[in-house]
């Protein structure tokens, strides 16, 4: 068996590390060849992208800086080429539509979604609990809006600032969509911890930063509409006090869902035990035991395929 294999971004990965990843490493390993073919295709058409300076590579696009000359003057633009192999539409027709389906569908189709029976039961219980608890956090008065433009994955690399730390630009606007006001929240990464690490002392540290953030946010909201009550700041504070903020994070951080349910949502009602998870998971569907067996079989098949990928034969 090979010690490592290279992935799309050129970083080698071991079999043990690949097995512990939530992502489907078998699919990612195929991206390297597909990306190379895309680069060659773009290079073959280089005459259409004159004044090439440097290619910029993101997670889903290749960006080529270009200079456009016209009678109105020269402009520096970015020629962005989506990477079709990341959409998987060519290999699995219809997957673009699947992206719009529920997280349940993703769980069922992902071969390494659960690594044993207990893990599968835990995930089924967490997803079921979210449906059961959602009515505590979804305000019926706001179900018809207004909705607010928000980043679905806002992080520090999306934000450009000047020397005084004033925000001058936001990028990746294609990831902006209209979402419920309750989904507005203080960025969880402000203290440098993963969203599933914000517990105990880390939770206290985050809350201190959050309170400082909210003071500034409320002041800015008041400056924009001085005669109105700072509505968004109030909604964000209510979400924090009710723990509703964690329910919305479950929808945007699917890999952290179980941790967020166990650490933040469930304790307000009752602590989850293995027995409780087993009981709740049985209400997933009439044949829940068959689903568990199938997901474990999927994982065992994934392990064999992963071993074959690392094989030197």
What does this structure look like?
The chain has helices at residues 15-19, 25-44, 84-87, 95-98, 103-109, 117-133, 200-224, 231-242, 244-252, 257-265, 274-281, 288-310; strands at residues 4-6, 12-14, 56-57, 61-70, 73-82, 147-151, 159-161, 167-170, 176-180. The protein has 12 helices and 9 strands. The protein is an alpha+beta fold and 313 residues long. A hairpin with a 5-residue loop joins strand 1 and strand 2 (12-14). The protein folds into 2 domains: 4-98, no CATH class; 103-281, no CATH class. The strands form 4 sheets. It has a 3-stranded antiparallel β-sheet, with no helix packed on it.
Essential attributes:
single chain, 313 residues, alpha+beta, 2 domains, 3-stranded antiparallel β-sheet, two-stranded antiparallel sheet, 12 helices, 14% strand
